[in-house]
Target: L-fucose mutarotase
Amino acid sequence: MPLKGVPSIVPPTLLSILASMGHGDELLIADANFPASSQGREVIHMQGSSATEVLEAVLTLLPLDSFAEYQASVMKQVHAPEQDAPIVGEFASILTKSYTKDGAKSPAAIERIDRFAFYDKAKTTYAIIATGEMRLYGNIIIKKGVIDATGKVVML
Model:
């Protein structure tokens, strides 16, 4: 049964993981080509959804960390490391829709990481969501922020 306010694509296992995460914990939303199962983290399989759909759904529930230098990390393209993959612009737009800093909407800071450094960072995430995303470099790591006792996102 669907829950009020919870996007219908979010499975119960993901709700549990999001609720279990603490401030500063990171979550990887991975594309279909990412070696999710070999990273040694818990994997939630959502192959019926794209990475952008999952990011949008997750951000309705998860606050981004306003204290960190970067709220998200993406993988640099191997063949063109100075140029963002097309999906990164979509990620940035989605992040900006849900991110607030100092009480106002603000662009989230996105770190660009070389491929193997991204794989290393993936091994330290709290969990991985394996999506059906077929666009190349459709991987993003997001950092959880803080919610206070009144339910408001805390700006540290």
The chain has a mean pLDDT of 92.
